[in-house]
Design a protein that fits this description.
CATH topology of the largest domain: Rossmann fold
Helix content: 25-40%
CATH architecture of the largest domain: 3-Layer(aba) Sandwich
Strand content: 15-25%
Shape: globular
Number of domains: 2
Oligomer: single chain
Number of helices: 10
Distance between the termini: 54 Å
Largest sheet: 9 strands, mixed
CATH class of the largest domain: Alpha Beta
């Protein structure tokens, strides 16, 4: 057995949460060589590198894999993880043909969601193992909290994940992270009467809280002070890690082709090196797709350069629809629950078809 002593330098898993507009995304944008997966479309006014807003859970996973396999970035930022959780819930409901998460009964839907989110966290851990920091941004919610051994209850801030009591996603994300930072306005009050019984708020400083408190969740393993001003300089030393290492999967042909839209965005920001290798195409150029194809499926088709005829052929092989049925005429539940939710299997069938019938 090999015994390892001392500190191990590796990329970090970070959660940043707080009220809307407090500066969470701006702080994350200062991490080394960042790229955003903007699940809610809130970074449009920021000069950052970003991938297109994912319209499905499968699209989000494909984007994470693309960043992981590319090795060109220092930090992957998902903004926000609570909006990503909504995509996860939609995917679980589509897969099991349910209208909503409560339709499962007995809390089973929340178990499925936590399992699926757990698989995403495992994928993000692979990104970290490849030397790329991962930052999950989340909104905060105020909940009533009551300790078992105490009298009374009080309000506290928590991650805005799994707002139902049966959900397990918030604890999963907190346990996964090396660092949980809570950002909020620290407001000062002054007395307005001589007796000091009446007060009013005056001023406020954006403050980062890095340790646990009865009124909020936070943690770190780097000896940070309990609180400090919202300034990246206070944590910059933690992320001065070596450049990302080559992922073993890069030795094989990448299964995810970077979308053209993200490449244009990257070039405009100037944050990413210009020597990104061109992807190896395994399919003929993709013609313009029918705008009536559901967006979640159309984005996956564009990402992997899949044509409408290839989808139609794969669907016909499984005896779902006649080969000449337009995708726009497919049942929406079939598109979401089969084609999008099981995209990896669909893509695998298409790739096998490509090998069987070479194109010129």
């Amino acid at each position: 057995m090999q015994v390892i002593t001392g500190k191990v330098q590796k990329a970090k898993k970070v959660v940043i949460y707080g009220p809307e507009g407090v500066g969470k995304s701006s702080l994350a944008a200062q991490f080394p060589r960042p790229i955003f997966i903007d699940t809610e479309g809130s970074t449009t006014e920021m000069d950052v590198a970003r991938l297109p807003k994912p319209s499905s859970w499968e699209m989000l996973k494909q984007q994470v894999k693309w960043v992981w396999q590319g090795g060109q970035y220092g930090t992957l930022i998902i903004d926000t993880i609570d909006w990503a959780e909504m995509l996860c819930v939609e995917s679980v409901c589509s897969t099991h043909q349910k209208n909503g998460i409560e339709d499962f009964g007995y809390g089973k839907g929340y178990i499925f969601v936590s399992e699926e989110l757990g698989r995403m966290l495992n994928l993000l851990s692979d990104v970290v193992d490849a030397g790329i920091h991962v930052v999950l941004i989340a909104h905060a919610q105020i909940v009533k909290f009551e300790q078992p051994d105490e009298m009374g209850a009080y309000d506290r801030y928590q991650l805005k994940l799994g707002q139902k009591t049966a959900s397990r996603t918030a604890p999963l994300v907190k346990e996964w992270a090396d660092m949980v930072l809570f950002i909020n306005y620290k407001t000062f009050s002054i007395a307005t009467d001589k007796e000091g019984k009446k007060n009013k708020a005056q001023g406020g400083v954006r403050t980062v809280y890095a340790t646990h408190h009865p009124a909020w969740d936070a943690k770190n393993r780097h000896g940070l002070p309990d609180e400090f001003p919202l300034d990246y300089g206070h944590i910059a030393h933690i992320f001065n890690t070596p450049a990302p290492t080559t992922n073993p999967s890069q030795q094989q042909q990448a299964s995810v082709t970077p979308p053209q839209q993200s490449a244009q965005t990257v070039n405009q920001t100037g944050n990413i090196p210009n020597n990104i290798p061109a992807p190896v195409n395994t399919a003929p150029p993709t013609p313009s797709l029918n705008s009536n194809i559901p967006p979640a499926l159309r984005e996956l088709m564009t990402l992997h350069q899949v044509t409408e005829s290839e989808i139609q052929q794969a669907v016909f092989q499984r005896n779902y629809y006649p080969v000449d049925t337009p995708i726009a005429n497919y049942d929406p539940g079939f598109v979401e629950g089969v084609l999008v939710a099981a995209w990896s299997s669909v893509l695998g069938m298409i790739q096998n078809n490509r090998k069987a019938v070479p194109f010129n």
